[in-house]
TrEMBL record:
It comes from Thermaerobacillus caldiproteolyticus. It comes from the Bacteria. The lineage of its organism: Bacteria, Bacillati, Bacillota, Bacilli, Bacillales. This is Uncharacterized protein.
Length: 60
């Protein structure tokens, strides 16, 4: 793994992008549940985005 340095603005942009993707996955989960589809992949994706977002809280 490589460490990079980012500005506060870049970090805020990354956090916003991850948060947006997490919200998108949440919507997809709701739609898939309503249609009775398998959501296991989406739940794993959600967990990964949540972990990334948590890690970004401690950046800088």
């Amino acid at each position: 793994m490589k460490t990079i340095k980012v500005t506060e603005k870049e970090l805020a942009t990354i956090k916003a992008a991850v948060w947006g993707q997490l919200q998108s996955v949440n919507r997809e989960i709701r739609f898939a549940q309503e249609q009775g589809k398998d959501i296991s992949f989406l739940l794993e994706l959600k967990r990964e985005f949540e972990e990334v977002f948590e890690a970004l809280k401690y950046a800088n």
